[in-house]
Structures are given as structure tokens and as C-alpha cells.
Amino acid sequence: MKQHLIALVDCDSFFVSCERVDNPALCGKPVCVMTGGGSKGIIVSRSKEAKALGIKMGAPYFQVQKTHPQAICLPARHRRYSEISHQVMNTLRSFTPDVEEVSIDEAYVDLTGLDAVYKISYQELIKKIRQTVWQKNKIPVSVGLSTSKTLAKLASDKAKSAGGIYIIRPEEILESIGNDNINEICGIGRCNSQNLGFNGIFTVKDFLAQDNAWIKMALGIRGLNLKFELSGLAVSPVDTTLQAPQSIQDTKSFTDFSDNLEFLQAELGIHAHNAAQKLRHWNGFCAEVGVLLRTKDFKTSILFTKLPATNSDFAIKTAATELLKHLYKTKTLYRSIGIELRKLSYNETQQSLFKNLRREDDKLSKVVDELEQKFGRGIVKIGA
User: In the chain, what percentage of residues exceed pLDDT 90?
Assistant: First the structure.
């Protein structure tokens, strides 16, 4: 099996880092990004200064406001974070096309053979990648390098406290991670963790010492592949194929609770546009639309309806509005609303099969996308 050199590039405190791109005055200060609005926000990203204060991930904003009034808490701007993520990924692809995006702030990069291309060592290469992302995008990243994805992920975790880069060499695997808790390895679930513990397997070293046949019997082929990956063999290569989503969801909590139907319809219209725009980005169509409505006390209702395959704002918004009318109850306070698109298809040749597809609406939606891309979000709104 060919030995690969795989790096995992992980953006540090990504949402906070994005906010600092737009507002450098936030640098060096305890900054948190939260989902939701007002007192109902939940902390989802923290700067190292905020972590040093003891602010926990998932802490409610009202609690942080009382215990750490010096912390700067900002509402999440997911569209902006997606834009910056796209810029970072393009920077990585300037080194090699072999980039696999695994989340908005993480990507695997296959660097095999690039030491000869750039005429520098792999250690110098990952330093250069880190420096280039900072120079071009102003986003700090941690880079882990090894011979498999699993080891690269572990190396990137260690890089955060080792100056930003970390390498796990094949001959140093046990020295680097042998004493790490096996429960912390991605791919070991709760049930498998208990099973391993019953058999006296608590560390990576314990796990690697087990016979292949026993691991396959106890954990299946995935467990065996995990052992190979931890041993330095790239069972799972870097996959550069972008995967179209199986469903699309767009939702957000309100700044204040509301029982106003017109307000709910307006918010739903925004989510319908966001979701449809994501669908059009993939040149896809949906045949089912759902509306999620959550009350003040977290009771969630969801209702779906089928419709002729479409990706138009008008068709999706119209269907969603009808669903909202069935879900809505007077004198009930709601905290959030959202939309979900399901039964997605991406075969362009199927468009002509859908007789009720409103082609003029699709064209209009695409024009709105182009205007927003040129002049900014919300420059045009489609009425009822």
C-alpha cells in the first residue's frame, strides 16, 4: 500500500476568527460567538482569551453575561463564515487540488510528493501553508501531518498547543499517541468504548496491541480499518469529490419570543430564500418542503408537504407558508422557525419530466442570486 502524507488543516476558533477579520479591534479580547439572539443565545465559539476566563462551550448567554461581563458576545453570521471558509479552501487548493472539505473549518490535504515539487521538507511545507492562510485570509490554523487521516486529525489537535503544527511520524506513533485515551479517538462510539474497557483496552497502545481477528470480531470492519489508520496506513484516502447534500435546513432563533403570524411568515420567507439558494448552488431540485416551529418551552412541531420538483423561492415559500398556517396556534409564543428541503435531486436531464415546474420562477430566483452576489444580501426581495 502506497504511503501517503496527509495534513488536516483546522481553523482555530473559526467563528471568532472570522469576526476578527471584519473587526481587528476584537483581537486579544475575550470574544464569544453565539447562536440565537439576545438572552436566549448559546456560546458556540470562543477565543483563547474567553477560554482562559473559564467560559464553557454551550453556555447560555444570560449566564455568561452575569459571570463574565467583560466577555464580548456576538451573534453568529453563518453566511459570512461560509464566505471566509470558501476563501480559506481556495488558498489550500493553491497548493494542491487534493483537498477534502470535511466541515466549514476543516479540510484534509494530500501532500504526497509535494516536498519534491516545492523543494522543501514536509515540515516546512505545512508551515508555509499555515503562514499563507494567515497572510491571505487572516485566519489562524492548526496543521497536523501524518500518514493517515486519523493520525492527521490527532496531530492537528496536538498542534493547537504546539505552536500551530505537529507531525506524527510512523516510527513515533506509540511515542506520540500511545498513551492517549482510546475513547477520544474519532470512530470509537460509546458502546464500543464500553466493550473495549471490559476487555482492558483503555489506550491507543492497548488497542494497537490487539489481534486483527479479535478487533474485527469485536468492532467489525470499521474497527479493523481504524487500527490500520492508527498504525499509519491510509485506508481512507483524501476524497476531493464535493458531495451534494441529501437535505437542506435553514433555521434560527428569534431575538425575542413572538406570537405574531406576520412576523413568523417574514422570518420563514428569509429561510426559504436561504435554503433555495443553497439548493440552486448545487443545481438541485427538491420535491418535499417542511416547516419547523419551536415554542418558547422548546416544544417542536414539524410538517411536510410534497410539491413538483423545484428550486424557486416562490414555489418553496408558497408551500412553506401554507404549512405554517396549519402549525401556527394563536396566543402561543415561539422562539424559532425553520425550513427543511428533502427528496433532493441533481440530475439536470430530469427537469423536463416535471410538468408543473415553474421555469419562470427558477429564472427569477437565479437573477436574484446574481444581484445579491454583486450588490449584497437582501438587495432584492420577492413578495407574496
Answer: 66
Strands 248-258 and 300-310: unpaired
User: Would you name the residues annotated as active-site residues?
Assistant: 106
- Looking at residue 235, its amino acid is V
Q: In 3-state terms, what secondary structure has residue 181?
A: strand
Beta strands in the chain (DSSP E): 6-11, 31-35, 42-46, 72-75, 99-103, 106-110, 141-146, 165-167, 248-258, 285-295, 300-310, 334-345
Residues linked to residue 169 through DSSP beta bridges, in sequence order = none
C-alpha cell at 172: 513515533
pLDDT, the chain, mean: 88
Q: How far is CA 355 from CA 253, 307, 309, in A?
A: 37, 11, 9
**DSSP tag of 355:** T
255-311 per-position pLDDT tens digit: 778 899 999 999 999 999 999 998 988 889 999 999 999 998 888 899 999 999 999
Confidence (pTM) = 0.73
Other C-beta atoms closer than 10 Å to the C-beta of 354 total: 16
Phi, psi of 347 (to 5 degrees): -90, 105
Which domains are delineated in the chain? Answer: 6-11+81-230 (3.30.70.270), 14-78 (3.40.1170.60), 248-375 (3.30.1490.100)
Backbone phi and psi for residue 354, each to the nearest 5 degrees, phi listed first? -90, 100
d(C-alpha 161, C-alpha 157), whole Å:
8
Going by C-alpha positions, the residue among 284, 271, 277, 273 that lies closest to residue 244 is: 284
Nearest Cα neighbor of 112 from 100, 96, 124, 127 is 96
